[in-house]
What we know:
This protein has 14 helices and 23 strands.
Amino acid sequence: MALFERTHRVGGRLWSVPMADGLHADLGAMRLHRGLRQVLDVVHEAGLTPDLVPFDFGRPENPVHVRGVSLRLRQLTDPVGLPYDLADDERGLSPGDLVLRAANTLVPGFTELRRSHHEALERGDAHRAARAATEFRRRCDQAVVGGVPLRQSAYAEALRAVLGAEAVALLHDTGGYDIGSSGENAAEQLGILFRTPPHAEYVTLRHGMQSLPRALCDRFTAAGGGLRLGHRLLRVDRVTPGDPGHAPPDGTAPSGPVRYRLTFALEDPEGRVTGQHSHVHARTVVLALPQGPLLRLDQDGLPFTPRLRADLAAVEAVPAHKLFLLYRTAWWQRLGITRGRGTTDLPLRQLWYGGTCPPPGPARAEGPALLLAAYPSGPATRTWDALRAPGAKAEHAHRLLARMHGLPHLEPPLSALAQDWNSAPHDGAWHVWRPGHDPGTVAPRVRTPLPGEAVHIVSDCWTPDPGSVEGVVAGAEAVLAERWGV
């Protein structure tokens, strides 16, 4: 058994980079919550449970800068000074309350079903939890927005049908993610909210989320698994009659008949093609790839069919950038801010004070301090697409930070680290379901696109929770159960 990875690191969109003095920048996924039982089991198996630490979202004192007005999170329920002309029955509601109002209007009884589902899970009552989830799905299937089934509607359209325009703008501006123009399937977005505990406790790994795939890879290689870095898959073919076959690079022949031939292009640590190719034969192939890299495989090879191409198009990639800035000191502490998220309608969109991986010990007043200074997604990435040089991105972000916090003489950062998830080989930071598609129907077909063939696809994309580590683990578990009964 061998793992072939295009880059020269293991982790994919889990990517943690050391910055300074025990600080880590998570360029990709950065959090879990305690309700994600499958992935937390994997964390435990990897021996990383002691490294789970709290992940802070918005604290009451954290800033929200919208429409040129600087507020604190606790002020969003105070209609005085809030620069949004909300309807009378929406005034005084927090953004979270507005989302729940919309959910209960679109799917009557949403809050009660969600509460019942998670209380049952906490008590270990799987039957009651499943019953609540089934009833939620039934009501979703019956829900209609403006004469259109909820599953056929985009989330933005559904929100506009039940909330005022200013309330939707408030959710978009203060939530950090693109809502106003999102084409995400409304039923699936509500499904993600349903599966998230009402008072979710978020955690992260102290040394970055990439420590999880690293630990799993170490266990894999220690058990005899092979690891081949710098291998970009080009195509998968059935072995033709008379093909003599080829032993894997470690010299061990597969036990049983060889069925598939994989063709790789070799790349150096900088991602440059070396001109060399490698051919490997296998009995079973598992493609752990998102949408873009899958579609770049040769389409006349396995496992492509018209049905699979249509299923792959059931999700849409979401662009995102991340920009970390390292400052000489934690200047935000002078403003009464310690940790957690701030949001804005400026191109920064989201920022995390102190980064997202808390260093050991209490917050430091002196010494280098990390800030996730910009985390835009969706249309907000266009500003950053125009700034190709890392230095230009850092300068622009620093100016916006100074403006947002009212600090015109803010000392420039010591260094910067940027990641554009729009570019190859990723083509998107995460994916969302398009309207009209049901994961319960599409996901099993994607996992095994060719009945009778041992070629499978495991990815976070085609799961009920696309973009999540839980989705990847659930997809892998499903393939193991369906293929080998494990």
